[in-house]
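If your schedule permits, I should be very grateful for your opinion on a structural question. The matter concerns a single protein, recorded as an amino acid sequence and a row of backbone structure tokens. Could you please explain, in whatever detail you think fit, how the structure tokens follow from the sequence? I set the record out below, with my sincere thanks for your time.

——
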Amino acid sequence: MAFTCGFFNSENGDRKYNAEQMSAIFDGIIADGVFTTIGDHMAVSAGTGMQVLVGTGKAWFDHTWNVNDAAYPLAIAASDVTLSRIDAIVLETNHSDSVRLNKLRVVQGTVASTPVKPTLTNSEKVHQHPLAWVTVSPGVTQIAASAIENAVGTSACPFVTGIIATTAIDDLFNQWNGEFDEWFDNLKAQLSDNVVANLQRQIDECKKGLTAKGTIIDSTTAQVLQLTEGSNVDDALLKLAMPEGKYALQITLLTPGGRPLPNIAITGLTTITGRAVSTDANGKAFGFATSNPATVTANLSKFLDLAANASKSFSLTSGIINQGVMTATRSSETQKLFTSSKSFYFSPDVAEYDWSAVGGGFSGGRGSYDSPTNMNRGSLSGGQGGDAGGVINQANVSYDGQAISCIVGSSGGGKSSVNGTQTPNGASGGAGGSMTLYELSEGTATTYNASDGAATTDSFLYPPTSVGGAGGGGGGHYESVQAYTYDASYGNGGSPGGGCGSNSQGTGPAYDGQQYGSGGGGGYTYVDEYRDTPDIALNYGGSGKQGAVGFMWRFKS
């Protein structure tokens, strides 16, 4: 314990004072809180998107002054897909030697089915004073005003109303209630029993005329609307909104795991003006049916893990808002192979997924021929085998609630992809058979057989699927003017299912690829110069096989 005092003039630095001592002069004069008469007294309001704004104002906390002279934006972290949380908007004072600074900041809460306000720091050096609490509901992208609970003016962050005075609104209401009870008890002590009873009866009558939803309507209005006497304004508005022949129904659409399904088109209900109805962020949809019972259907075709539709019949009562719950049905599959492009979603029940893709196989090439002359050599070759499509596998991808776009590569070498991630290049096709043709007067040739297409060594894992190898090179045949005959044999297709190169006259296209992503075989080249009119056939190669994209998924516990 020590006795301190100040301030005195310093001589040669013998009287020095720190910030805490300077602030101590206000102790007992101004209490901690936000000044109620300055600016917007730091009230928190909704901003743009996931932003809140701290209003202008001045505050005194922990021996430090704080001034905000313009709306101060604070970013709220992205919402969870399925759970809520409560964030705190605080004015934080920090007396740590390495910091010595105050600031406005967000203290993020913990997501939960029933979220609670986060615990704020209140240590020797650091204090967090709440200005507001913000409820972040699942899937929201905009902070609404209704999600903000201002704490300025409460006991947690009181108003400074003047010198040595602060006011908390909740304490003020308690004070008023206490004063009223004290006054009424005193009044009862001064009045006779009959007068007290009469006064109590009048109070009770007044209470009958007020409800939590508004003032009761008079008996004539109730009779016109065919309502019971004592009905309130809310009952009357509801009656007017529901003309004869219409039944009001609010449904809650849930996944098999009990999670809300937002933005789902609903049939069987319309708005009061006849427009289409869809579920909100909480999976709720409100509308009117014109038949009873009413069959309501939810279109769930965009979800890969759910049955295409959820449908339920409801027996309805007129004149009230009926309530109902619809639960989607889980698909019997947990894996899917696509052979055509598609965009889809998973439901909020899905935790993560794996995917594989193979690109489309290239088609085999066409053969070529360059005729020799008496002065120059020529050449002949079969078509090049088509390359196989490349394979890619991705495991344990966390699902973020967004659409998944899968592109299936077409025959001819089209790339497959998922959300923009493409397949690589695949196994190479075999070279076509070839010949070097000597001068026409010699009529001889040197031959080289075609090579086989390369096998595919990468596995397609999700789900396990057989994918093809590259196409083999095409063969060739040459008969010179001297009736010399030469042949170059074809190449086999790469395993599994690569197209085999062609090797005989008149077969037309070489063999096509047989497995997803396999290449087509190279085309066959046939030349007969022995005839009076040379017979030349440059056949096209076989077609490559289209690609495929597959998915496997797992659910949340």
Observations:
- The chain is about 10% helix and 30% strand.
